[in-house]
Specification:
With about 290 residues, the chain is mainly beta.
Length: about 290
């Protein structure tokens, strides 16, 4: 390119002393066809707002511990009669890109912890009533009858199997930091807090007084009141892998851990009960 002062160019054109043989260009912002490239460490364009939809396949580790005045034998009986089942979480997260590496996320998360309660009562006796009817004959004909009832106790065992459910609804407040990224993949670390809105339960366990099965379902008059209405705060951490299907759509894979910071049970209950959850989240992310 040849650069010529505009004033000099005008004078030469006016005196017909200039013959133009080259293309003259003016490097001013008004003639730029593309935006200046920012000093982004990655090769892909980031977008400010995103929406995640996900489901997490969870394994739960329960921690029961004694409170003051609690019985160790009762703790052992609960551990022997209750066992973990497949659990899950699902939700949506809104994300906002505050820099090339940092993102903030919040939304709504539903979690359900499933357990199986099995109890065998070795002294479960069954009571049966046997009715006996005797006929009175006279001259070969029935003239009357006598009815008697006998109460018989049949010794045996009874087995009880109930599927317990612990449900929570939380608001996640998370920060995500991008570690690596290219045109196809991005790898991020994500952590933050889950703020519990409410929790509910349905099922049975052993009563702390009589060690017999009792219901603890929230909202019913049966059983005993055991659990709080809210859990407070849980700590969340994970590693998020995103596969970029298009410029706006990602597939997500996110191994994660979530730790409850306080007990689910009321102060009046003799045991403290909380969970650590380890999950594998799968989902999609749409970038607006």
């Amino acid at each position: 390119r040849q650069h010529i002062d505009i004033e000099t160019l005008g004078n030469k054109l006016a005196s017909n002393k200039l013959k133009i043989h080259r293309l003259i260009t003016y490097e001013t912002p008004f003639f730029q066809k593309s935006k200046p490239v920012a000093s982004c460490p990655f090769v892909f364009d980031t977008q400010d707002i995103s929406l995640d939809g996900y489901i997490s396949h969870d394994y739960t580790s329960r921690h029961l511990s004694l409170k003051s005045g609690g019985s160790s034998s009762y703790l052992d009986m609960r551990n022997q009669t209750e066992h973990g089942n497949y659990s899950f979480s699902a939700g949506i997260r809104f994300g906002y890109n505050i820099s090339y590496r940092w993102n903030l996320h919040t939304g709504l998360n539903y979690s359900q912890i499933n357990e199986k309660f099995e109890y065998t009562d070795p002294e479960s006796n069954q009571t049966r009533i046997i009715t006996i009817k005797d006929y009175i004959y006279q001259n070969g004909k029935i003239v009357d009858s006598i009815i008697t009832e006998e109460l018989i106790i049949v010794p045996g065992t009874s087995k009880l199997k109930v599927y317990n459910k612990y449900r929570t609804l939380d608001i996640p407040i998370l920060a995500r930091y991008t570690l690596l990224a290219n045109n196809k993949f991005s790898l991020s670390a994500i952590s933050g807090l889950y703020i519990n809105l409410t929790q509910s339960q349905k099922g049975m366990f052993l009563s702390p007084d009589e060690s017999t099965p009792v219901a603890f379902t929230k909202g019913t008059e049966e059983g005993i009141k055991t659990f709080k209405n809210q859990l407070g705060i849980s700590v969340y951490a994970g590693v998020s892998l995103a596969y970029h299907l298009t410029s706006s759509l990602d597939l997500l894979l996110e191994p994660n851990a979530r730790i409850q910071t306080e007990s689910m049970t009321l102060d009046s209950y003799p045991l403290s009960q909380r969970y650590n959850t380890f999950g594998m989240t799968t989902g999609i992310r749409y970038k607006f």
